[in-house]
What does this fold into?
Amino acid sequence: MAASTPNAAPKVGIVSLGCPKALVDSERIITRLRSEGYALSPDYDGADLVIVNTCGFLDSARAESLDAIGEALAENGKVVVTGCLGAEADLIRTTHPDVLAITGPHQYEAVLSAVHAHLPPTHDPKIDLVPEAGLRLTPRHYAYLKISEGCNNRCSFCIIPSLRGDLVSRPINAVLREAEALVASGVKEILVISQDTSAYGLDIKYAPSKWKDRMVSARFFDLAKELGDLGAWVRLHYVYPYPHVDDVIPLMADGKILPYLDIPFQHASPRVLKAMRRPANQERVLERIAEWRKTCPDLTIRSSFIVGFPGETEEDFEMLLDFIEAAGIDRAGCFKYENVDGAASRGLADHVDDDDIAERYDRFMEVQTALADARAQTLIGQTLDVLIDGYDDDMQAFEGRTKADAPEIDGVVYVSSERDLAEGDLVRVTIEEASGHELAGTEIWRGG
Ligand code: SF4
It folds into this structure.
């Protein structure tokens, strides 16, 4: 197999089989690869890696696709499979166990992640149009890190799986490489996102991949631990309370990752949760939260809830209010149930009428605001780490967030300081005032 000379653009070959839709997919893949600095090779010899975009429509097309994979393996050795036959990963793995990765149709991100994992892009700041950490819409100092696409759950109110398909996890070395590049480009806070973060790696059987000088498994815990070594704040979003979530709490207690869990519980009544078809066992949730807080007393729990789900009775709703108080949910978003087109919950019996939904929403917000207020009062007099997001002209103060606050969705801290602070500065602030999700205080600054 020919390889690129050091510093030359890595070269990818592509074998495109099947219908015009598959051809368009191939074009999209090569367009993205070219924009990332990869070169294309017209033959196996000149390629560092070959993508085979397969067809799975007829038996003859499937046989042709399997033959093409075999040929690419024999001629080149480094092969990533995508396209329609990719949906039958077991068949491909049985016939060709040496393929590097298998992704299904239209899974561009997954194909690119597989290429990044096995043939990292080179970055030349003098000629690349795109910085190594990619183009981002967030401010320079924080960034979202997407670890997977799609979802294996089938919550009855949600149509995401029908839009985005089943869970497709990115290889862990591709995720870590992106995170490292983000930190190198000045990112101080990484927000881990997906549809179901705690399910990370399930679809790829937690496949280990090479990171630095070692193999790392694509597991939720390993991901959190490795991210925690990069020197930025790491915040976990969309975590479901599967048992293995308990394992990351000590990482939070040790300061490796932020003591913050965004768990969309959606409800607390077992009857409603069953009708919602929510993942993860809700039993013992209160006990587990108490154990988490014992291990990590600073833990902040954010959650979201739906009120007025079909069949929700007054008793169910009160169970929900009791839950947010008993669990001490620190941050809660509340959504009024909506009949989304295509969602299974549309067909459920006993839809709650709009006035009742509105009334329950108001009661939820009242309890939640009182909880947030009580929590905020306990912070007065404490000195907290605050990441500066900018300057607020109206408040005539710098604006930042504590470890308990994710950008856009949680609270803010207004900071007075005798010096000029910049976005991304991490400062110590003594809290003097508190109300709901807003805090105000003064930077502790001893000159420097
Ligand atoms: S709401 Fe349920 S089905 Fe929808 S993305 Fe989240 S876990 Fe998946």
Observations:
- The pocket of iron/sulfur cluster is lined by residues 151, 153-155, 158, 160-161, 195-196, 279 (CB under 6 Å).
